[in-house]
Amino acid sequence: xxxxxxxxxxxxxxxxxxxxxxxxxxxxxxxxxxxxxxxxxxxxxxxxxxxxxxxxxxxxxxxxxxxxxxxxxxxxxxxxxxxxxxxxxxxxxxxxxxxxxxxxxxxxxxxxxxxxxxxxxxxxxxxxxxxxxxxxxxxxxxxxxxxxxxxxxxxxxxxxxxxxxxxxxxxxxxxxxxxxxxxxxxxxxxxxxxxxxxxxxxxxxxxxxxxxxxxxxxxxxxxxxxxxxxxxxxxxxxxxxxxxxxxxxxxxxxxxxxxxxxxxxxxxxxxxxxxxxxxxxxxxxxxxxxxxxxxxxxxxxxxxxxxx
Amino acid sequence: xxxxxxxxxxxxxxxxxxxxxxxxxxxxxxxxxxxxxxxxxxxxxxxxxxxxxxxxxxxxxxxxxxxxxxxxxxxxxxxxxxxxxxxxxxxxxxxxxxxxxxxxxxxxxxxxxxxxxxxxxxxxxxxxxxxxxxxxxxxxxxxxxxxxxxxxxxxxxxxxxxxxxxxxxxxxxxxxxxxxxxxxxxxxxxxxxxxxxxxxxxxxxxxxxxxxxxxxxxxxxxxxxxxxxxxxxxxxxxxxxxxxxxxxxxxxxxxxxxx
Lengths: 308, 259
What we know:
- The complex is a heterodimer.
- Chain A has one domain (2-140, 155-292).
- Chain A contains ten helices and five strands, in the order E-E-H-H-H-H-H-E-E-H-H-H-H-H-E.
- Chain A has helices spanning 14-31, 36-45, 50-74, 80-107, 110-142, 175-192, 197-207, 212-237, 243-264, 269-292; strands at residues 2-5, 10-13, 163-166, 171-174, 299-306.
- In chain A, the strands form two sheets. In chain A, strands 1-2 form a two-stranded antiparallel sheet. In chain A, strands 3-4 form a two-stranded antiparallel sheet.
- In chain A, strand 3 (163-166) and strand 4 form a beta hairpin.
- The relative contact order of chain A is 0.22.
- Chain B has helices at residues 2-17, 113-116, 120-126, 146-161, 221-232, 234-255, and strands at 23-29, 33-36, 42-53, 66-72, 75-86, 89-102, 105-109, 165-168, 172-176, 179-187, 193-203, 206-219.
- In chain B, the strands form three sheets. A six-stranded mixed sheet of chain B has the order 2-12-11-4-7-8. A four-stranded antiparallel sheet of chain B has the order 1-3-10-9, with no helix packed on it.
- Helices cover 30% and strands 40% of the residues of chain B.
- By secondary structure, chain B is of the alpha+beta class.
- The chains are: A mainly alpha, B alpha+beta.
- The interface between A and B is large, with 58 and 68 residues.
- Strand 5 of chain A pairs antiparallel with strand 5 of chain B.
């Protein structure tokens, strides 16, 4: 069944989009990440215009992260105060990201910016996670106890000014590094059409040592709010938000996410992180392959202005 | 505004037609409006035409007529970019911006165009054929420089792949020696706006009449509503999109609640 997307101005098969949403939703339910980093490239490969893809991901991510955030809220596994600090940084980053997005779109370099950012970001995060999870797997094999954090030892960024106490996370840190990281994620989210959960979750765990039980809920809460802002900013500045595309994707992904979450309950932590790392690296390699290989078609044509 | 543009376009091509003979061309379209709704996957525009000979003039002369029907979509600037090696990477480097290029073009004729108009300069002046749809460079002598040719042929190739450019040398059917019909397919991804059907009548390699008939491709129903709201009231549109998304997110959390 074909459906015409009013903003992308092209017809798509509704089952392909539903299926894609469900597949990515499954992965996001499995790993607790938004899945935008998989969905954006797939939709672009389908031939949808990349500005519309990136802008329409924002409401889709907002909707699916609400589902997750509500579940964690009921379990009280959500640090609202920490989330609010992250949102402030996220909003600044989103605003900057949307401005950058529109500037790059005009200059015709948006595609290469998206591709290179994906390679860098996914390569870096995937590589770090892979190394960490391989060490963890090796550790459990050898039976050694996990390294414990020495009490009283602080890292340099924890000593910065503007310290704040976060009771639910049991944290007392400077808000500067929190704002910097969430600002960067907001920026990446607006430019690349990703929620940023796959950066924020490891950052909160490894850098700030937020307890694992509140990390996912808090990250979902932050993503929910920044993506609502991103939708509004894209809608008012680039006019590229396709409500029909976002809704169809969302319907697919909420169902997929439920099955993913059930499947995720049966996988062990280290293996789970190893799998996620491998998947992130695979997407990075796919992109790298595209830029490094001589493409079959060297030319692209874009309609820059139309008289209506 | 649209009418003014159509008239201007008609005025531009009228002097070139300069009918020295006594034939007139009558053209009518199957519709003057193609509406795009949620199930739109493309539509056809059917062009009917007749060649009318003046009483008395050229009587007894049996002329063989040739027809070239060119359906053109709204014109816009199109940038063609070429990827070139930058170190190990392939990056958009060179670009050629074609101004006022139709976003859609279908060139239909009753036989291959070089037979209809053997003079290449004439073909270029009348924009007969896909290779002439993008306007020539400001310095016409550069038209056949290798780089220009590369960009032009890339534009045609890419648009043909999207089915936005098409050429059918047997797309015009003569129902009688003077009555013809042609059908152009407007694909689902075709741009919206004012289209023009340019019909040129040739005989013996010489143009004798030309007409331009407009029609519109526009969104209808909910598609028009959504697209209009997105432009006219972007903030409300954004808020509504967020509300729909949050509603589905909330609904899912209710349906799948497990406690």
